[in-house]
Amino acid sequence: xxxxxxxxxxxxxxxxxxxxxxxxxxxxxxxxxxxxxxxxxxxxxxxxxxxxxxxxxxxxxxxxxxxxxxxxxxxxxxxxxxxxxxxxxxxxxxxxxxxxxxxxxxxxxxxxxxxxxxxxxxxxxxxxxxxxxxxxxxxxxxxxxxxxxxxxxxxxxxxxxxxxxxxxxxxxxxxxxxxxxxxxxxxxxxxxxxxxxxxxxxxxxxxxxxxxxxxxxxxxxxxxxxxxxxxxxxxxxxxxxxxxxxxxxxxxxxxxxxxxxxxxxxxxxxxxxxxxxxxxxxxxxxxxxxxxxxxxxxxxxxxxxxxxxxxxxxxxxxxxxxxxxxxxxxxxxxxxxxxxxxxxxxxxxxxxxxxxxxxxxxxxxxxxxxxxxxxxxxxxxxxxxxxxxxxxxxxxxxxxxxxxxxxxxxxxxxxxxxxxxxxxxxxxxxxxxxxxxxxxxxxxxxxxxxxxxx
Length: 454
Ligand code: SF4
Hints:
globular, disordered C terminus
């Protein structure tokens, strides 16, 4: 999922549309844009599909006068698909209409929903954004920022939200900093984005990351910062670096490509291999493959080509769709891989189905040996913060040994980079959440405890 908002920017809807293009890799199931015009009228359009499928010149032209707007791209898991859950969401309230878009997941969503239901709320969506909206509406404090702060202090998990009123934009990040969110300047206006790569596309100048536990407000007074938590345990999602984010994005001061390349170098040191060439799985395995080749001295080659117009398999909601996607999205370069001993570098292995298909694809193209090297540690635990890495039972390595996993994906050998090397690859810029690799969750796990009890 992604968030992209603008304040005081001409052609707000068109700018958001461009921003959503740059953030399309974070979700392809749906997209939405909402803007407020000078009279406080909200124009809102959402749909299922890519941003380019949801919006056309006519829908964007309806937002003609807006200088203020909020957009989102959505990815759906099994529980949260469908148009109802596509954000941003619009809400009426006596203090003024407002719009919310968010990403991530609350650990205590069930408890908050139950509390709100006991106070008369009825929900139209399965989103955490609707929970936040209802908490804000329920709080009795006078100022909206106080309502937001009181609401955020009831929420636990990994999240980023943006809230837009007719004359103001708020952006906030969970107190652990699990989800990224950054702010930039464009002329006299402001831009917020889940990733910095979207700033470059519209010519905005990066100002800073929003801090964990911070609410940033932008309006005609400029930018103000309010902390809703003094919590200091910063743990940005490492999967943002390994897999999710675009290589040209910086998260908390660390460039994603530079991180992946350094991980690749460390991987070559920790899991060396006797091979003829190194190839990477496009796109998110390429940086680590370059690093592996550089450190090992084995030549880097382009052995796999991606069909650009097939959606990313990992973030599609069903196993059937994922499997169909794998078959269509990659081709082996036969003249490069035929007769060679390959080091195949990928960003991660979740269920192993994609990796198995790629190994088979390369063998069918004549590869003599396929040695799989993974630019992230062994994934053993589920994520409770909104990254759809599946249940423990579905993960390739939750119960299998490395040798068993290697046999499952039909590779000649299999190696992963360590958690220690991953942390060192940020070069001190970021502290990482590595919970899906080491089981050390930065938050309490209310929902998980409830599941276990049942
Ligand atoms: S558990 Fe894994 S996927 Fe989830 S936030 Fe932590 S590092 Fe990211």
